[in-house]
Structure formats: structure tokens, C-alpha cells
Design brief:
The protein is of the alpha/beta class. The protein folds into 3 domains: 4-196, Rossmann fold, CATH 3.40.50.880; 205-393, 3-Layer(aba) Sandwich (Rossmann fold); 415-542, no CATH class. The chain is 33% helix and 20% strand. It contains 19 helices and 18 strands. The strands form 3 sheets. The protein has a 10-stranded mixed sheet, with helices on both faces. It has a 5-stranded parallel sheet with strand order 13-12-11-14-15, sandwiched between helices. A 3-stranded antiparallel sheet has the order 17-16-18, covered by helices on one side. The protein is elongated. The relative contact order is 0.10. Residues 341-357, 424-510 and 516-546 have low confidence and may be disordered.
């Protein structure tokens, strides 16, 4: 049995980052709503509790409190931002609106030599005070410490930026240690869960395989399982894990909708059918999908059409497998969190593009989700441990509808970019564990670009398409999630910390653009620019080769 950390979510958009930092310390944790019952908290039996931030204020949202059992269990508790506020209020302190709101970089002075911050500093002042570079996001502040608490950190504008009651193991920080902008943030969270809470760092994917295999065998028994294999990371890892558990009793159905990247369908079939010896039924439904998409330009409409057609094709193939009793899916933990499907059962619906449009109800199959507790990074680690090819496990994220939503306008005649173009984009980009860089080749009438009459876009009238590569700053996934929370102004003010090796030079842009345009007339590669208002969209996502 793994030691567990309970994370109570008060509505912060970066709560998942807290969980990711805890998992990176190899400690298992789960996120649950803040209003779970006292009985649930006791039954969960956590080694420690972490209270997340929130957009709310303690003096406005009187119901946004931690359960009483949190304070009665006698385990360490860490309050982050709003979590610190509710800790202060519930323990007898006072919180008020601050006349100086902080949203961005700050320098915090650590005080009191508490177990949480002792010895941690990013630099020292001339007076010898240890300082931490952190990220703030608050409009309130603690104005009176609760009984038994001592000052742990401060800033000139926030005299109580951290507090602690070490006798009871209660700690509160005003800043966000879960985000990358707090330089020592990972060390703070690791110190809390490993040293203060004493949790065992036994959450390791290589060891998790044996545990997951045993659970699948117990759940499925002697039944057969069917899985919709998309070729994406989640479904691929789920297939490999289930196959390890039950062998030939797993049948995968791979529906090729004709909207994948070049040779991906072939790669999926070769990897699973020929190399891993998994039973895979390949269905080439590209003509049917492209026929239904003819004349459709709205992205949401295309997404729904692709989803509907997939359900129809998959249902026909699944109906032929009379012995299958289970439908396996690659649902991962963020899907559960974002859809409210935590184990409290307050909401159990997974987003439609993750539960394949309600197939379990349609087919009368029980649902098997072996990756339900894992974050994406953990799924990739698990895939590597299971022996999946590096390129498959670390491929750049790609939407289920594929090029159907990556192409602006109607999906007409479709041909995909050659590997040579993708290799150009890979050169000079950051390694996959640092960031992923994305370039969009957008039509000339895209907002923000030079407008061109509809009849002049594309090569139908003998003219070259007016195209432009639009770059996006290379940011890690956790930074992008953090950015959406803090807003554009704060993000622009943050230091990018990107070295030359993180950035692709301009010479690659012009060469990639030339390759794509030249490829338009070659049957082997490229996406032919269509006539009409939307010439084409090529999203070439740069992930370097291993």
C-alpha cells in the first residue's frame, strides 16, 4: 500500500501542478474537492494534506473551508495561497483584503528556521538574510497569526507571507511553490512530503507495472477486452499494459480516419501487430470520413462529424467480437480531474472525446481504465518501461480528430508533410523534456496577417499561396497552464530563461516554409493548397529526434 497525500482543491487552475510536483517526488497523491466529508478524509488516511489556492476570498466565500477532519487527523498540513488563508481563519487568525495586490515575481525573506524553509535560499542580502525567488498571486493577506503560529516568511508588502505551527505540523505559504517560477518550489514540496510528512517515495512507474497488471487481471477475470487504438500515447500505453496482463484476450480496433500524420497508421499497425504481437483489427475508413467532411469548414462541426463517424465504425467492428465484455480506454488523471470525475463520485462523466462518445452504454460493455490515476508524464514513463518505441511514447501531442481540426477550412485533398520537413523543424528545437516548439503555417487571411482576396489564395489560379510561419514561444506544459492562470501581463513580465539551444534560428523558418510550399505539387509529400479563402494550415510541431 502506497503512502498517500491528499490535495484538497479550492478552485485553483494550477492545482494539478501541486499533484505533479508531489508525484515527481515519487509519492502518490490524489486531488479531491475541498468539500469532501470528514468521513472521506478519515477513510483516505493521508500521510499529509495540501490545501490549494483559489480565486476566492475567505471573507466572501464562507463555505470554502477545509473539512474539520483535516485539523483533527494530526497529520502535517500545507496551505498554499488561499489554502494558507483558510488555515489562518479556521485556526483563529484573521485575513483581510490587501491594499497592495501581488501578481508576479517576488522576493521572500525566510524567517524562523522552520523545517520547511530552513537552509533554502536563492540569494542572501547584504545583511545576510536568506531570500527566495517566488511567484505571488493574491489580493488578500493574513493580518493576524492564529494562536500557536509563528512567522515563517515575509515581503515588504506582505508582512506574513508564510506561517507555521511546527508542534502540529501546520505550514502556510503565500506564494506558489508548485509553479516553475518559484525557483526552490520543487524542493519545498519535496521537503514537505518526504521529510515533514515522512511519506515513502515508492511511486515509481517501473514498479507500478506489476501492481497495475495484477489489478487488471483481478478486474477482468477471464473476460475478453476490446480497445479503440488511436495511435496516441494514452491508448498505445493502455494497450501495451493490458496486453501484458491478459495477452490474446485483448483485441484492439484501429480506425484510420485518413487524418493522421504521414505513415502513422502504418507505424501503429507495425508496432502492435508485428513487434508486440497484439491482436489488432485495422479499418481504413478514410474515404467515409473525408466524404462526410466535404464542404464543412467549422472546426467544431468537423470535430463532431469525426466523432460520430468513429462511433459508427467502431460499433460495427466491436459488434463482431461477441466474447468481449470490457471496453478499455486511455483515460488519464487530468481527464478525471477536469471533468469532475474524482473518486468522490460528485461527477463521473469523462469528456466526450475521452469516453469515445458514450460507447460503453451503446455496446453494453463494462469500462476498463488502467491509466486513470496517471498524469501524462507518468504515462510516458510507463510506456518506456513497457518497451514501447521512444518515438511513439514521446511524440508530440496530436488531437484525436487529427488534421481535421488542424486544417483551417474544408478538408479536401489531403497529403501530409514529409519527414524531411519535420526533421528541419526538429533541428535546433529544445529537447522534449525541456519544451516543445510549435509553428503554424497559416493562410493569408488569418487574423493578424496580410489580407488577400479569396480568389488569389492558393495555386488554383496559378499564383503562389500567401503563407507565413507563425511561431509560438517554447513553453513547458506546466508553464502554459500557469500562464493561463496569471494572464498576459504577468507572463510577459516573467523571465523566459531560454538559452540559444532552446530557440530555432530564422534559417530554419525560411527553409521549412520553402519545403512546404514546394511539397504542395508533389504527390509524395505536403498538403496541397486549396483554392478559396483558406489556403491551408500546417501545424508542424517540433520535437527533436532522439
Amino acid at each position: 500500500m502506497h503512502d498517500k497525500i491528499l490535495i484538497l482543491d479550492f478552485g485553483s487552475q494550477v492545482t494539478q501542478l501541486i499533484a505533479r510536483r508531489v508525484r515527481e517526488a515519487h509519492v502518490f497523491c490524489e486531488i479531491h474537492p475541498n468539500d469532501v466529508s470528514d468521513a472521506f478524509v478519515r477513510e483516505f488516511a493521508p500521510k499529509a494534506v495540501i490545501l490549494s489556492g483559489s480565486h476566492a476570498s475567505t471573507y466572501e466565500e464562507h463555505d470554502l473551508r477545509a473539512p474539520d477532519a483535516v485539523w483533527q487527523l494530526g497529520v502535517p498540513v500545507l496551505g498554499i495561497c488561499y489554502g494558507m488563508f483558510t488555515m489562518a481563519v479556521q485556526q483563529g487568525g484573521q485575513v483581510e483584503a490587501s491594499s497592495h495586490r501581488e501578481f508576479g515575481y517576488a522576493e521572500v525573506r525566510a524567517r524562523g528556521h522552520t523545517k520547511l524553509l530552513d537552509g533554502l535560499e536563492d540569494f542572501a542580502t547584504d545583511a545576510g538574510h536568506g531570500m527566495l525567488k517566488v511567484w505571488m498571486s493574491h489580493g488578500d493577506k493574513v493580518t493576524q497569526l492564529p494562536p500557536g503560529f509563528t512567522l515563517m516568511a515575509s515581503t515588504p508588502s506582505c508582512p506574513i507571507a508564510g506561517m507555521a505551527d511546527e508542534a502540529r505540523g501546520l505550514y502556510g505559504v503565500q506564494f506558489h511553490p508548485e509553479v516553475t517560477h518559484t525557483v526552490k518550489g520543487r524542493e519545498i514540496i519535496e521537503r514537505f512530503v518526504l521529510q515533514i510528512a515522512g511519506a515513502k517515495p515508492d511511486w515509481v512507474m517501473r514498479d507500478y507495472i506489476e501492481e497495475a497488471v495484477a489489478r487488471i487481471r483481478e478486474q477482468v477475470g477471464s473476460d475478453e477486452v476490446i480497445l479503440g487504438l488511436s495511435g496516441g500515447v494514452d491508448s498505445s500505453v493502455a494497450a501495451a499494459l493490458i496486453h501484458k496482463a491478459i495477452g490474446d484476450r485483448l483485441t484492439c480496433v484501429f480506425v484510420d480516419h485518413g487524418l493522421l500524420r504521414l505513415d502513422e497508421g502504418l507505424q501503429v499497425m507495425q508496432t502492435f501487430a508485428e513487434q508486440m504481437h497484439v491482436k489488432v483489427i485495422g479499418v481504413d475508413a478514410s474515404e467515409a470520413f473525408l466524404g462526410c467532411l466535404a464542404g464543412v469548414t467549422d472546426p467544431e462541426a468537423k470535430r463532431k462529424i469525426i466523432g460520430r463517424e468513429f462511433v459508427e465504425v467502431f460499433t460495427k467492428e466491436a459488434a463482431k467480437l461477441k466474447q468481449a465484455k470490457w471496453l478499455a480506454q486511455g483515460t488519464i488523471y487530468p481527464d478525471v480531474i477536469e471533468s469532475g470525475g474524482a473518486k468522490t463520485k460528485k461527477a463521473t462523466t469523462i469528456k466526450s472525446h475521452h469516453n469515445v462518445g458514450g460507447l460503453p452504454a451503446t455496446l453494453g460493455l463494462k469500462l476498463l481504465e488502467p491509466l486513470r490515476e496517471l498524469f501524462k508524464d507518468e504515462v510516458r514513463e510507463l510506456g518506456v518501461a513497457l518497451g514501447l518505441p521512444h518515438d511513439m511514447v514521446h511524440r508530440h501531442p496530436f488531437p484525436g480528430p487529427g488534421l481535421g481540426v488542424r486544417i483551417l477550412g474544408e478538408v479536401a485533398r489531403l497529403r501530409r508533410a514529409a519527414p524531411s520537413c519535420r526533421r528541419d523543424l526538429h533541428r535546433g528545437a529544445a529537447r522534449h523534456h525541456r519544451c516543445r516548439q510549435r509553428q503554424d503555417l497559416v493562410p493569408a487571411d488569418e487574423p493578424g496577417l496580410r489580407g488577400v482576396p479569396a480568389g488569389e489564395v492558393g495555386r488554383g489560379d496559378g499564383r503562389w499561396p500567401h503563407l507565413r510561419l507563425r511561431g509560438r514561444a517554447p513553453r513547458r506544459a506546466d508553464q502554459r497552464l500557469h500562464d493561463r492562470r496569471l494572464g498576459r501581463t504577468s507572463v510577459c513580465a516573467a523571465e523566459a530563461r531560454l538559452g540559444p539551444d532552446h530557440q530555432r534560428g530564422a534559417r530554419h523558418q525560411s527553409r521549412c516554409l520553402r519545403r512546404v510550399v514546394e511539397a504542395a505539387g508533389d504527390d509524395r509529400v505536403g498538403v496541397r493548397p486549396a483554392t478559396g479563402a483558406h489556403a491551408m494550415l500546417l501545424v508542424a510541431s517540433a520535437r527533436p529526434e532522439p
